[in-house]
Amino acid sequence: MADTTQVRPGGAGRGGAGKLALKQALKTPWAVIVAILLALAVLDPGNLRDTVVFASKALAHTGQYILFAVLLLAYLKATGAEVMVARAFVGREVRMIFLAALFGGLAPFCSCEVIPFVAGLLALGAPLSAVMAFWLSSPLIDPPTLLITAAALGWPFALGKAVAAVALGLFGGFVVRALMRGGAFASPLRQAPSSGCCGCGGPKLDGKPVWRFWGEAARRATFRVEFISNGLFLLKWLALAYVLEALLVHYVPADLIAQVVGGDGIGAIAIAALVGMPAYLNSYVAPPLLAGLMESGMSAGAAMAFMIAGAVSSIPAMAAVWSLVKPRVFAVYLGLGVLGAVIAGVLFQIVA
Question: Is 328:259 a contact under the CB 8 Å cutoff?
Fold first, then answer.
């Protein structure tokens, strides 16, 4: 790490560090929220109060879900429960695919931890089919995403997304298995990184969970740090999401949304998947925005396709895949994600 006390061209090291901190602060969701509200105060002051009230009520409603989610995540991290996920990649290939797709939605990993975790598994000989099942299901659902989706869109949608996450993992895993049997992906890995992107090094693959973690000081400290960091992370992104939802409901014409993605046919669902793919919305921002879109006429199937395609193609998810595997595997990952999003949207539309 560079010494921040040395003199830089722009001034003293401490002053440079202050400028850097300011630049980082201006890139946060809090800064975006303040900028949006200031713009409203200047351009449309009559809508400022309604926007703040809308976002505040929605955030208060979701608060109970946020609290439970961060408590659960902090508990899983403090106990070391991620070692249970590694055990899913041991045994017969078909069994591994099923367990990897299931545990992908339960793993308490951040985006940077997935990289060394999967790199270690591939280096140890875990089949790409099981890893692909994990990769496809992991960004779609986790405990906080499930609860936030339920708060914004209802439990039927949240459970439908959870089922779609596991099904997409299974679909991708068995497709890759069939391709590998035909001789594809004999050497899928790039050079594997030695540590996580944030320096955490990733989760350990050995050991066993300690469910009564409070007996160890280090685990209590982990619980406290994870609770605070995850709580602030979810709070800032959901606050931004609800402000954006308020703007969407107020300014975007409902008939325009209905014309593009309001139909029940496969065309509207496919369009939603293709639009969702480059949207790069994380799984915490998407549900409130989709709630606003559905109120304006977006179909349930299109909303499901949009959410799944957007999660698979989110920047952290794609970065994890791109950093480890060759371009051909990366292309298959994206193709399976978009195709699976369309299929899930069509099926959910029929059920809904």
Answer: no
Question: Given CA atoms 3, 5, 10, 16 in this order, what sign does their dihedral have?
Answer: positive
Which pair of tokens denotes residue 295?
Answer: 């109120």
Q: What is the DSSP letter of 279?
A: G
Integer Cα distance of 94 and 108 in angstroms = 23
For residue 176, the model assigns a pLDDT of 93
Structure tokens at 237: 């992104």
Instruction: Determine the number of helices (DSSP H) and then strands (DSSP E) in the chain.
Output: 16, 0
Distances (CA, A) of 15 to 3, 4, 24, 342: 13, 9, 14, 51
User: What is the rounded distance in angstroms from the CA atom of residue 211 to the CA atom of residue 215?
Assistant: 10
What is the end-to-end Cα distance of the chain in Å, rounded?
53
The pTM is what? 0.71
| Cα–Cα distance, 35 to 12 (Å, whole number) | 30
Sign of the dihedral through C-alpha 96, 341, 123, 320: negative
pLDDT digits (tens, 9 = 90+) for 183-220: 887 777 765 444 444 445 455 555 678 888 888 899 99
Q: Please name the amino acid found at residue 107.
A: A
| Positive or negative torsion for Cα 67, 69, 70, 76 | positive
- pLDDT confidence bin for 278, thresholds 50/70/90: low
